[in-house]
Amino acid sequence: MNVSLTEIIQRWMTADSHEVFEGHLPQLIPLDYIDCVYMPKNIFQSLSAETQKSVQHVFKDSLVITNHDIDLSLIKAGSTVSLDATRQVYQNKPGTTNGIVITTPASKFEEQIVLPVTISQSRILYCLDRAQTSHNLELIYIYWQAMNGDLILTISNETINPEKDQTKLRCLVCYIAEKPSTTTDDYHEVYSYLNDDNPYQHETNIYTNEFKAKSNVFYRGCNADDFLTFCLKINHNSGKGILSHAGPNGTYNHETIEYQFDKSELDLSQIDFIHVNAGNQDVPIRNFTINHEPILELHPSSDNDFKLGT
Q: What is the pTM of this model?
């Protein structure tokens, strides 16, 4: 096929999305499903006073008027709006998936998948991106999104190989339990936990309830019908590991699973290789990133001291 990359890019920049692919909402959806409606200021001002009042009444605080000027002459009823200069800022900043995307196959936690980046590599890349930064970074923030749970994330000082006798293997094991059923009268949630044991001891530890830190209300208050965002924070100096929700669910669920490891138990500065494996079902994972500072947009602020009547 005699087509250059430049021609392909040009085609995608000018093609009507209906000619390629496009996602649509259903024709009728409850207004409660709409979080925000963004409307350029000059489009809103072009509406009649009655229409403006109607829009404000329907969407209330969900209506956000932005300081953008759109070329109104391009908008014609029944026709597609051609691309213009006012849209260039959006064309040049596409929304993409970040980090690692992987579907972890069900293996009853027997198959370890090693992710293609280590903590030490992420630290080097972080320092290269910044002119002045410490090469002895003590904080690690690992973010990922997963669906349905029943997933183990293991960080170890060497690549796990069950066929070898790894007497010096040291691991931080983070287990995200399977999401609980919402169709039964009794709420039951298996323990999610942090541990410093071998990940192959998972079934035994679940049976004996032997963990360094655990929670069986880790999903309470969360929307578990979609991808959930998790954050594992590791502090090398203090030896503390904290597992929590991030993103929207972090607003409603403040449950954390945390433990301060003694260096004689597990030296968090030595763990480097990241593995994932799943139990009885495939677990899709996306947006898996290793960071050395928090992603603020994934940690929504809230007033923990709020009381009714104040």
A: 0.69
